[in-house]
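yo

u said u wanted the structure for the complex thing, so here. seqs first:
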Amino acid sequence: MKLSDHWPPLPRTVHPGAWWLWSLGLATAASRTTNPILLVMILAVCGFVVVRRRGDAPWALAFRMYLYLGAFIVTMRVVFRIVFGGGQGDIILFTLPEIPLPEWAAGIRLFGAVAVEQLLGGFYDGLRLATMVVCVGAANALANPKRMLKALPGALYELGTAVVVALTVAPQLVESVLRVRRARRLRAGGQKGLRALRGILIPVLEDALNRSLALAAAMASRGYGRTGRVPRGTRLLTGTLVVTGLLGVCAGLYGVMDASTPRYMGAPMLAAGLVVATVGFVIGGRRVSRSRYRPDRWRPGEFAVVASGLAAGALMYLTTRVDPANLYPSLNPLTWPEVGLLPAVAILLGVLPAWLAPPPEPTREPGPVAGIPRQDAEPADRSIPQTARKQP
Amino acid sequence: MIRFDDVTFFHAGATEPVLAGVDLHVPEGELCLVTGRTGAGKSTLLGAVNGLVPRFTGGTLHGRVTVDGQATEDHAPQEFAELVGVVGQDPLAGFVTDTVEDELAYGMEQLGMAPEVMRKRVEETLDLLGIAELRRRALRTLSGGQQQRVAIGAVLTAHPKVLVLDEPTSALDPTAAEDVLAAIIRLVHDLGTTVLVAEHRVERVLQYADRLVHLDGEGRIRHGEPAALIADSDLAPPVVRLGRLAGWEPLPLSVRDARRKAADLRARLDGLEPSAATAGPGEVRLSARRVTVAYGQTLAVRSVDLELRAGQVLALMGRNGSGKSSLLWALQGSGPRRSGTVDVGGTDPGNASAKGARALVGLVPQTAGDLIYLDTVDAECKQGDGESEVAPGTCRALLDALAPGIPGDRHPRDLSEGQKLALVLAVQLSSAPDVVLLDEPTRGLDYHAKRRFTETVRAQAAAGRAVVVATHDVEFVAGAADRVVVMAEGEIVADGPTAEVVVSSPAFAPQVAKVLTPQKWLTVEQVAAALGREAETL
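structre next:
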């Protein structure tokens, strides 16, 4: 096999699992440090990869929302430090009037002196959380979250569909609330509170109910929920196996966590439960007479994406063992954050998918119509009457 | 292929049957058009084909429905998936996935087909319906006609022998409807699919139908050759009524048939003029200057100038998404407006309070049901009186004028589409606005309800109001509107008297105009009046 067979990567959809593992690797890296320089590097890596490798589908455009959410988290952290956490640190920036609290609220302070250390502490903390959120957002923008559900094992298919439908309903619900609220304005109903709520709630609920009935009917008539020719006994058996197995897993987990339970309730129970549940899933998966259209496969591109993300996470973890000094910049005494070689390399590894991952396929076919937002524009031109514009 | 044997259906708790002793056999490869007034049981008949009625709707079904020998009493709707494809009125409500290609594959995945077969059939279906360039698009970003074609494609991939379509074109503009119908005709011709289609807009489908099934509203059906059955049907499209007027034998079903016979009628009408429907327009009620509506980076309405005059009915036309609704909402003042001015009697409704705007301009939105939320008609009317600060009983009196005889204790959801529209209109008219805007009011109305609604609209104009109706329904426009404005891409591209604008347009011309062009006749009523005949009996 020549390298030229694989380079440059041709457009195709990447397995959503690959992007999720990559982003989890970066999020792990972010969780290991509060160094703002490293965190900003991770943000830059995420942003760069997203810009280079996302498609133009609606979910890909949600990345901006995660950036806003991140900014909100950072701001809230800093504001909370000003409101509640006053007094820690020597370099006082300014002093707000302190609100005296009763005796029983001892330990809580409202406003008061605001120190640089305290603000920076809030900022570092918030930035770390924001970076992790943005990593998740990057995965959401790069991989269709619904395709991820398609990769579930066959026995969990029904569950996956239910989640997909729920994901579709949420934006529709928002849409109908907006529509009904706008319509309520037309009637200028002056009610407030509960009565106004009723005016919105009833049409929206009715709308949602009608939609879900229509969807259920459509899904049934297209074959969703076909049991095929599976004997009743088999169905009963798989159901029992899965439920018993999952109960075993729960009991086992409890045993492992709680030191006071008998030994046999721990790891052995967990293992037995897993085995029973797996057998149930396998038998259940076999009875499912469904197939998958163009399933995503794991190919070299996917492995490259996963490797870069996991390498970033792993190297960062290694840094915490060998050279943790610069990962948590000191606030007391206040020092300028410094960056070691190892963590910098770790994070830069995460940017590789920007070149190694296959680019997404364009949503529109290339051709003369590309770039025209409405592709039915051409035939509709006929519908424009030839009369010149006139005022009556 | 489809066989109904003595089928009777009752809704749960009902004493009157929806279907009473229906016997029907639709042979393989036929296109069968189901007609009937609103609530006559068209959807019930269609739903019974794959067992959704009564398994999803409840109620009791006597008798036997079989498709290709498989009875609905023995098999669940799921087991009919490879036999019957069902497409509803609102395609978006039936989509399970979110891209075109996934949606086409969904049904086949349920049937457990081999990946190679799925791949091949998706490609074939994309080509068959002419939607290949949409394959990776998100479903929500498609236009109405495209969505409807994808919905048809999504059931076709399972290669059903029967296709059931419930009002497939009712929400579409004329051009998109043509595209969808062309796709359906192609299936009948090329694949031999048996198609059962219900449609209010009989004029769109009649010419293609091999068989007509007419529901009389009391549960009985008549079926047979379209030409024979339509002769005395009360749901005849304009071209058939014109044929009756002119005494053509056999009756024409398509514009083309009628045009070939129309030479002598055109000669008889030569020199006659359609009578002017109304006196000239009155004073200006609303004047809009450079109105622009933008949603983010998308321009919905671009710098539109519009004047609405008292006593005039204006029809606002244009393809789906051309900015009609945005313009209406901006004129009313409740919708966003980026720039421009609207002037109603010296006040801008955009700056007025919700109450003030309502007294200036009344708007009935596309989903009129959004405005109704109380338990009874009387409660809604009382609420309407309170909102408009008028004497109690005003709204009810308006309602009785628009649609007499609606019981006050009836739940608004149980009203027919026409009655519901009348109720919403009465609520909006109770504040006595000088300008009335109606967004797609004729959706779901049969010919009779539409005729009543035409009278209502004309009466409002005669009372000195300025009326705007945004609609795709060319036949309604021909009968009701004095002036037509056509929008495209947020701009006004044509504006003039109805006859002048629609006659020259291939998409917006009503059937009578197409038959009698170049003469400017729009409706059967006009022709009948000119010939000195009564059109009511046609």
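Chain B is about 35% helix and 20% strand. The radius of gyration of chain B is 24 Å.
cya
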